[in-house]
Amino acid sequence: MKKIAYFKVVLATSLVWVFLDIFLLLYFSECNKCEDKDRGLPAGDGPGVIQKHHEGPGEMGKPVVVPKEDVEKMKEMFKINQFNLMASEMIALNRSLPDVRLEGCKTKVYPDNLPTTSVVIVFHNEAWTTLLRTLHSVINRSPQHLLEEVVLVDDASERDFLKRPLEIYVRKLKVPVHVIRMEQRSGLIRARLRGAAASKGQVITFLDAHCECTVGWLEPLLARIKHDRSTVVCPIIDVISDDTFEYMAGSDMTYGGFNWKLNFRWYPVPQREMDRRRGDRTLPVRTPTMAGGLFSIDRDYFQEIGTYDAGMDIWGGENLEISFRIWQCGGTLEIVTCSHVGHVFRKATPYTFPGGTGQIINKNNRRLAEVWMDEFKNFFYIISPDKKC
Ligand SMILES: [Mn+2]
């Protein structure tokens, strides 16, 4: 009889523990308390997020397949950042990527004494996982002695996880990461200028907040600037799918141009530029304009050319403005084909601007035309007669 009583006590205690475990599991696995606006922040930063073994979703840049039962939820979450946030949350913050460089790039040797760079990243309501994946890829794929620091500039985000949780997270990283806050929504240009002013590397590298740097991305950029500090350099921008987060190599056969509406456009690299490089595709391409999100520039040269047009608002036109400025102030703008950085291209902007996007881009483009285009500005006004004030 004593044995049975003993057994009952053991069973009862075990059951209590089992129920407690189930309760804890259910409580923490369901994110009951998450508000919609805080989506994008994973439940923790434990081992599931930083992966050591590269077997999880999205590794080697593979597309992520969302389970059928989650498709409706996935579509809802897509609206928050205009990319597949659910897929992004499934991928490790330090996922592996393929080496997409041309064979000739993999064996290039760069000088030891390259200038150091500060990486400046502006964000506004960015998702936790895309921002942190950008950061980890910068830190993990840059030689530490070349990376002075990372400066994150928060352009007045409203999401709580981008406040203190972000500051706590970046403290444990092996590279100094500073978080700077704009007091009010200031736009890309003024936020970048603030980040640049707060940084100290000889080179300033601007990146978007949803990028992934690949192996060997930094050295070829810095080598060009060391060779000639009036050279402003862009990597090849690879495409990270906004639907699946698949990593797709960009082409070294396109460069930046513009149309007379002053929209940035990609065009095939012309034969004269192929000839100038004697057909060697691993050599940098001179490009008329840059896409804008990703480039490196010598700090002093940036000052000499007068930085950006700080009168431009929010976003749009600033990439052509700085392109025209570089060429007309005696500099050179290049796409360094041995440097690859991925960027999540979106079909729609998730950002809202006071007065609407159209109005802001028109204003910025008018400034661009009036300052840098002399009589060529007339093409712009003929194509877009409503833009003239
Ligand atoms: Mn972007």
UniProtKB/TrEMBL annotation:
InterPro entries cross-referenced by the UniProt entry = GalNAc-T, Glyco_trans_2-like, Nucleotide-diphossugar_trans
Indicate the family of this protein.
Belongs to the glycosyltransferase 2 family. GalNAc-T subfamily.
* Pathway note: Protein modification; protein glycosylation
Please give the residue ranges the record annotates as the region Disordered.
42-63
Superkingdom is Eukaryota
What are the BP-aspect GO terms? protein O-linked glycosylation
Q: Extract the GO molecular function terms from the UniProt entry.
A: carbohydrate binding; metal ion binding; polypeptide N-acetylgalactosaminyltransferase activity
Q: Which residues form a coiled coil?
A: none
- Tell me which cofactor or cofactors this protein depends on: Mn(2+)
Give the enzyme's EC designation. 2.4.1.41
Pfam families to which the protein is assigned, alphabetical: Glycos_transf_2
Q: Which residues cross the membrane?
A: 7-28
Q: Give a yes or no for keyword Transferase in this entry.
A: yes
**Signal sequence region:** none
Gene Ontology cellular-component terms listed: extracellular region; Golgi membrane
Under the heading PANTHER family, the entry gives: N-ACETYLGALACTOSAMINYLTRANSFERASE, POLYPEPTIDE N-ACETYLGALACTOSAMINYLTRANSFERASE 1
- Organism of origin is Engystomops pustulosus (Tungara frog)
Q: Which CDD domains match?
A: pp-GalNAc-T
Q: Where is the Glycosyltransferase 2-like domain?
A: 118-302
Cell compartment(s), UniProt: Golgi apparatus membrane; Secreted
Q: Which Gene3D superfamilies match?
A: Spore Coat Polysaccharide Biosynthesis Protein SpsA, Chain A
Provide the alphabetized UniProt keywords.
Answer: Disulfide bond, Glycoprotein, Glycosyltransferase, Golgi apparatus, Lectin, Manganese, Membrane, Metal-binding, Secreted, Signal-anchor, Transferase, Transmembrane, Transmembrane helix
Kindly provide the name given to this protein in its UniProt entry: polypeptide N-acetylgalactosaminyltransferase
Q: How does it sit in the membrane?
A: Single-pass type II membrane protein
